[in-house]
Write a structure and sequence with these properties.
The complex is a heterodimer. Chain A has helices at 2-8, 24-31, 64-76, 88-92, 123-140; strands at 13-18, 45-46, 55-59, 82-86, 114-116. By secondary structure, chain A is α/β, with parallel strands linked by helices. Chain A has a single domain, classed as Rossmann fold. A 5-stranded parallel β-sheet of chain A has the order 2-1-3-4-5, with helices on both faces. By secondary structure, chain B is α+β, with helices and mostly antiparallel strands. In chain B, 48% of the residues lie in helices and 13% in strands. In chain B, the strands form 3 sheets. A 3-stranded antiparallel β-sheet of chain B has the order 1-2-3, with no helix packed on it. In chain B, strand 7 and strand 8 form a beta hairpin. Chain B is flat and about 80 Å long. The chains are: A alpha/beta, B alpha+beta. Chains A and B meet through strand 1, helix 2 and helix 3 of A and helix 1 and helix 5 of B.
């Protein structure tokens, strides 16, 4: 596990799971890949399948339909898999906690390693969040 | 002999950042039928909105969608102002128009980038998102946030555009024009893009009318429809601009409409900045009388419609929302069928679908996959209950 975690901190491959968000966090995540922020410099890349991913980025409040899918996605990811909750919705359900279609929060479904609050979090905040996550993993080592 | 194969796309797939599920029925390379399954983004906003008071709802409806996050509050405040029947200060109208048009620019640049990405032109993606950043910076300067601007409020706007911000805004627009010129050149003159987009995913004028599409999707099929012209709101009747209409109905026409609309948006913002009068930015609304009102806004994707019904309390008793993608997504059934599977990605993305605006909910039986309840069932249930009560009282 130690070696795996050490390897994980080098270049994170990210899978982006949108659990009924408003799209904004998702757009900001894509924004990270584009020239101004360009996180691919640090080896962070968005991958098309969760089976290739080291990190699961979760946005939004899970509803009854995405709840099961999020669990499946997490079980399909190669372990150890870090989960990052991006945005206020994923961190604490925000105002959607009263909705009839919002059964639970993200951290009740999968173990979350880092929370990045904001509506939407600025790309700088997301980079800072990932840096802190890497530091945390290295500290544990 | 035909052999039908189902190609499932989704719900989590690299094609689009939102979860949605397409079932493509293919024969060889040809798409013969398509099913679209949505519902992954449903959050029950209409119902939530009935539990919030009138001033909280702009915050909520802004979060219907992150890309059209001005269109929904704009349509909502239009609906409430229609209900109260007030005229709001002129300066607020201009500020609303500026914000809405800036949103159109950023949304069209975003779509252009994604469309480039779908056909394998990542350069277009990177360039258009690079030029989208200054627009977001302007939003941050004016409103304090890159997305979710929170500018709309019943009776006016929340923040003023400061006089010292106006030259910076104008300079950003001046810098944006060469960039849009570049995209126009890159898309119109590039033989590969032409070959990929021309004659693909055609929606003829009649089909567009039949499927009731709205916004750039309709305008690319030769229908001159634009809420900004047909039913002016904000300051759109006070500035001069043109509706862009293309006749072909293919994806190339849709791209062209969006690129040319960016020029019109820049023109509108410039004229609004020049004409914007001094004065108050909001009207103090004391109470909301009983009644109903509608608000329509031309969102980047088409007509966005809000209906609000009030009973005189501080909360609406009904808030109905119809987002543009609700109409446009269904037209994929015409546009994608008959094309090849490699064109399906760009065809499905060509209407600029926004699923989080569109989501609806229905209750299904897990085993038979049948609708458990529809509107008629609910009416029947209600009538049965009345009947039961009547019998019990007898």
């Amino acid at each position: 596990m130690d070696l795996k975690l050490k390897a994980l901190t080098k270049s994170l491959w990210v899978f982006h799971a949108a659990c009924s968000p408003c799209n904004n966090c998702d757009i900001e995540i894509l924004d990270l890949l584009t020239p101004r922020y360009d996180v691919e410099r640090f080896g962070i890349a968005l991958v098309g399948s969760v089976r290739h991913a080291d990190v699961l980025l979760v946005t939004g409040v899970p509803n009854y339909k995405t709840k099961e899918i999020l669990k499946t996605l997490y079980s399909q990811a190669p372990q150890p898999c870090l989960v990052v909750a991006v945005g206020n919705c994923a961190c604490g359900r925000m105002m959607f906690k009263d909705s009839y279609n919002s059964p639970c929060a993200v951290d009740e479904l999968v173990p979350v390693s880092a929370y990045i609050p904001g509506c939407p979090p600025k790309p700088e905040a997301m980079i800072a969040g990932v840096v802190k996550l890497i530091q945390k993993v290295r500290g544990k080592k | 002999m035909s052999h039908k194969v189902v190609v499932p796309i989704g719900p989590y797939h690299p094609l689009q950042e939102e979860p949605e599920y397409f079932r493509l029925y293919v024969e060889g390379e040809k798409v013969v039928d398509i099913d679209i399954v949505i519902g992954y983004m449903h959050r029950g906003i209409e119902e939530l909105s009935e539990h919030k008071h009138f001033d909280q709802i702009p915050f909520l409806v802004e979060r219907i969608c992150g890309i059209c996050s001005t269109s929904h509050p704009f349509a909502y405040v239009n609906a409430v102002e229609d209900l109260i029947k007030i005229t709001i200060p002129e300066r607020a109208l201009y500020i609303r128009t500026i914000i809405a048009e800036m949103e159109r620019i950023h949304s069209h640049l975003l779509w252009l980038g994604l469309a480039g990405h779908f056909i394998g032109y990542n350069t277009v993606w990177m360039w258009s998102w690079r030029y989208r950043e200054p627009v977001l910076d302007m939003f941050e300067m004016i409103t304090g946030n890159r997305n979710h601007y929170a500018m709309m409020k019943v009776g006016g706007v929340r923040r003023d555009i400061k006089d010292e911000d106006v030259p910076i805004l104008k300079k950003t627009l001046d810098d944006l024009v060469p960039a849009v010129d570049m995209f126009k050149g890159a898309v119109m003159d590039d033989p590969v893009i032409k070959a990929r987009l021309k004659g693909i995913g055609i929606l003829t004028k009649q089909q567009a009318i039949d499927w009731a599409v709205v916004g750039p999707t309709a305008r690319a099929s030769g229908i001159n429809i634009d809420v900004r012209k047909d039913d002016p709101y904000g300051a759109y009747d006070k500035v001069s601009w043109n509706v862009i209409v293309e006749e072909d109905g293919d994806i190339f026409a849709k791209t062209k409409v969006r690129i040319l609309e960016m020029y019109e948006s820049i023109r509108i913002i410039r004229e609004c900045l020049d004409k914007m009068p001094k004065g108050p930015i909001d009207f103090d609304v004391k109470d909301i009388p009983p009644g109903e009102g509608i608000g329509r806004v031309e969102a980047p994707r088409g007509e966005c419609f809000h209906y609000v019904k009030s009973d005189g309390t501080n909360r609406p008793i009904r808030h109905k929302i119809r987002a543009p993608s609700y109409m446009n997504v269904a037209s994929n059934k015409i546009a994608a069928v008959g094309g090849t599977i490699s064109d399906a990605t760009i065809t499905l993305a060509a209407v600029d679908p926004c699923y989080c605006c569109t989501e609806r909910l229905t209750v299904l039986d897990k085993h038979s996959n049948k609708n458990i309840m529809n509107g008629w069932d609910l009416i029947r249930l209600s009538q049965e209950k009345t009947e039961k009560l009547r019998n019990s009282i007898k």
